[in-house]
Amino acid sequence: MRRLDGRDGGGQPLRTALALSLVTGEPFEMTNVRGNRSTPGLKAQHVACVSVAAAVSNAEVEGGDVGSSRLRFSPGDLRTDPVEAAVGTAGSATLVCETVLPAAVALDDPLSLAVTGGTDVRWSPPADYLRYVKRPLCSAFGVDFGVSVPRRGFYPAGGGALSLRIEPAEPTPLALSRRADPDELRVYSVASESLADAAVADRQVEGVRDALAEAGVELPVHAAVSSVESDSPGSVVVVVARGGEDERDGDGSGSLVAGFDAYGERGTPAEAVGSRAAASFLDWFGGDAPVDRHMADQLLVWVALAGGRVRIPAVTDHVRTNLDVIRAFGYDVTLRAGDDSDGDGGAGSGAVVESDGGR
């Protein structure tokens, strides 16, 4: 039984613990779940993550209720018949999918997952980030999954639907030490049909273009604008930097996919929403990490499982607490802050995470 303290982290340590428990078959107990949050304990979206992980692994669960600060999770054998989950209101459906995705390394057959809830809500990856950033990046190191979004769900009602099909995987070591130069930006801008008359989705794209122009960044920008049905009005924009697919040279550079997003808020002009996503891109563009800050957190478990090396933009609290959980499961993962052994280094180098993929 792995003993974990969740006091210093939010939901990410819990999701990582669930993922590694699925992969290893080892039970764990986490106390002080989200202990340093203003409302500690499990929230509805965390309960959904626990419920789906339990359904996938035929697990025994103690303390898996809303508000619980202690969770005991004991997995059984993985199943591959379809699993359905309802997060409730606008709890994040994408984070539920993130929890189960690492189980790919332990699957013998594909696993299908259908989740209802919030597909595009704050403090979690938008559905288009999962589709257009996470999916191609994972595919590059041998983890393939299909994802579709039959219906969008915004805050507060949720009501969205997301479907995931995870293929069994034998991932190769990650090689993301250097950033390739972006060849283009793709902007995915989505808004509810109720916001169509205000041209919110189009104006979000305008905000991205204007911010890039003001910064003097001259890259082709290809935009996809969508108007969608949803239970609550809402909008989201995802900026995807792509490039270098045909330039891999064996030193960890090459194919590039990084994503930057922003959500619409009442009282915030749509142009400002686009500008906010562009600002995140520009901040990353000034460094040399091949992945964005949010992907850095998500890739740590894959470095542990598959081995390899990833340069990340910064050592955040999320990175530290996530590594604590990974190491608690026995994985040997090294973090070197400010590492510049690849050459240029400097203040923008962030850090390097590496592992041989063993325990």
From TrEMBL:
Molecular function terms from GO: ATP binding; RNA-3'-phosphate cyclase activity
Keywords: ATP-binding, Cytoplasm, Ligase, Nucleotide-binding
Biased composition (Low complexity): 350-359
Function: Catalyzes the conversion of 3'-phosphate to a 2',3'-cyclic phosphodiester at the end of RNA. The mechanism of action of the enzyme occurs in 3 steps: (A) adenylation of the enzyme by ATP; (B) transfer of adenylate to an RNA-N3'P to produce RNA-N3'PP5'A; (C) and attack of the adjacent 2'-hydroxyl on the 3'-phosphorus in the diester linkage to produce the cyclic end product. The biological role of this enzyme is unknown but it is likely to function in some aspects of cellular RNA processing.
Gene of this entry: rtcA
Disordered as annotated region, ranges: 340-359
Positions bound to ATP: 294-298
Protein name: RNA 3'-terminal phosphate cyclase
Span of domain RNA 3'-terminal phosphate cyclase: 9-329
GO cellular component, one term: cytoplasm
